[in-house]
Structure to design on (116 residues):
């Protein structure tokens, strides 16, 4: 039996990193879920044929799916305007967590499939 994606999961959404969820000044990230074709481009295979999401694909994941942000400041406290070029200014740890959120949110979890 084929399974359709939950339409609500395909809508863009605002995301806050777990480490900042209690912070009133947290950075908010606007994420547009990946299309199946985009996720396929980000998925790599190792020499054993195992599929996964490799660090070399993180920048591409951000370019595909990160569409805006609020409250991102540079080290001097000045706001950083959203742009593809400014994505390189995102802290490496935050980039990793954002890329993982983008990639994993493209797949429905078993519980979500059951409830959709």
């Amino acid at each position: 039996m084929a399974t359709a994606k939950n339409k609500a999961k395909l809508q863009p959404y605002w995301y806050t990193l777990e480490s900042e969820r209690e912070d009133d000044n947290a950075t908010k990230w606007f994420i547009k879920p990946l299309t199946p074709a985009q996720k396929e481009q980000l998925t790599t295979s190792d020499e054993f044929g195992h599929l996964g999401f490799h660090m070399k694909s993180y920048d591409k994941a951000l370019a595909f799916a990160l569409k805006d942000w609020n409250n991102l400041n540079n080290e001097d406290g000045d706001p950083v305007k959203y742009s593809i070029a400014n994505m390189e200014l995102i802290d490496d740890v935050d980039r990793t967590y954002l890329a993982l959120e983008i990639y994993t949110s493209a797949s429905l979890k078993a519980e979500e499939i059951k409830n959709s």
Residues 109-116 have pLDDT under 50 and may be disordered. The first strand starts at residue 13 and ends at 15.
